[in-house]
Design goal:
By secondary structure, the chain is mainly alpha-helical. It is about 70% helix and about 5% strand. It has one domain (about 20-190, about 225-385).
């Protein structure tokens, strides 16, 4: 009887270990702890600092729900729900434009609010819905997107998503969708020449929009494609010394903060740029600048090491997937994380244009945190079903 019970316990333990990717959970928890420490430090001295720190922890706790749900759901079943998911995706992106529901912050109507209470940013969970939809679409080609018609069909879905995002307008999130799609197309087998054409069209599009935007604004009597602050950010990226007291202020203060950190930093809670309120959005968009100032080069290397470990583990999950659909889901999540990491850190040091893209697991903000936790759940779903259900 004891031998039988021991055998059952051992079988259960083996099934549990098969369902759990320990390294993925370890890196995720490490990033969550690191992020909580930095948010607490960044908000010290701010009005309601303790409340902000608690909200960050609550965001993590709430994120455990989508993580668990996504993990329990068999990801292969999601492939058959593409139609309803497309409707959900459109509703999420359009909902902030519905009178009485949308709330404007930082120039974009991208939040939902009810009776004056801000709820969440629909574009964040929309990223995961988009990943699932695109994975189903791209997997139809079985790893060979080798005709202009096939490429145009897939890119048409991306174009529709970006248009919906730009109605808010939210340029940063629109670029995240581009990054997600690029990673999925790379795994999905799109020919290299189509990537080159896509990059050329994107570059020409940016130049064209910047060139005619002012004319379109005058003709329409309002901002058509880009808001003035978005154009200013792009111009500051091209010329970092432009308007240091205005449009270039954020970048200048971020560079000062990171540069003053040196090798080991000034210490938690001891950053002059953040504590003296020179550094804007220090607990959200510019959390990396706070880390660079207070923990220095050493702290930055630790963070980059954790991100590298997270991405390498995710790549291992993708290669272990039982099908292309699962690998594409993981590729989409990796594309989302990688783009946001490169863009957020890059903008703080001036090698990427400034956008409102949060740093995964680090920046304050429940919408982004819940989305990233849900993404971990999707990866666990792919991992736990790599041998079949």
């Amino acid at each position: 009887m004891r031998l039988h019970t021991a055998a059952i316990d051992k079988s259960r333990t083996r099934r549990f270990l098969d369902a759990v990717n320990i390294p993925l959970l370890v890196w995720t928890v490490a990033l969550l702890v690191y992020g909580s420490i930095m948010v607490t430090s960044a908000t010290s001295g701010m009005a309601g600092a303790s409340a902000l720190a608690r909200r960050h922890v609550v965001g993590i706790a709430v994120g455990l729900v989508p993580l668990g749900v996504a993990w329990l759901i068999d990801y292969t079943k999601l492939k058959h729900w593409s139609g309803p998911l497309m409707i959900l995706f459109a509703l999420l992106l359009v909902s902030p434009r519905i009178p009485g529901l949308g709330d404007t912050a930082k120039g974009a109507t991208s939040w939902l609010q009810i009776f004056g209470v801000r709820l969440f940013q629909p574009s964040e969970p929309a990223k995961l819905v988009f990943i699932v939809i695109m994975a189903a679409l791209i997997s139809e080609y079985e790893g060979k997107i080798d005709t202009p018609r096939d490429a145009a069909r897939v890119l048409g879905y991306l174009a529709a998503a970006v248009v919906l995002i730009m109605l808010q307008p939210d340029l940063g999130t629109g670029l995240v969708f581009v990054g997600i799609t690029a990673a999925m197309l790379l795994v999905g087998g799109m020919k290299g020449r189509y990537f080159a054409v896509l990059a050329l069209v994107a570059a020409l599009g940016v130049v064209g929009v910047l060139g005619i935007d002012s004319t379109l604004d005058r003709m329409a009597g309002h901002d058509v494609a880009l808001k003035d602050y978005q154009k200013d950010r792009l111009l500051v990226f091209i010329d970092p010394g432009r308007d240091p007291a205005g449009a270039g202020y954020n970048l200048a203060q971020s560079k000062i903060a990171i540069g003053s950190g040196g090798v080991s930093g000034t210490g938690l809670g001891s950053g002059t740029q953040s504590n003296l309120h020179f550094l804007p959005e220090r607990h959200t968009d510019f959390i990396f600048a706070v880390l660079g100032e207070e923990l220095g080069f050493t702290g930055a290397v630790v963070l980059l090491g954790l991100y590298l470990a997270l991405l390498v583990t995710s790549l291992a999950i993708a290669t272990s997937s039982r099908d292309l659909y699962g690998a594409l889901i993981v590729a989409g999540v990796m594309g989302m994380w990688l783009f946001q990491i490169l863009e957020n850190i890059g903008m703080t040091v001036g090698i990427m244009p400034i956008t409102g893209i949060p740093l995964p697991f680090m920046s304050f903000g429940s919408s982004a945190m819940v989305t990233n936790m849900g993404a971990v759940g999707l990866l666990l779903s792919v991992w736990s079903r790599r041998y079949g259900t």
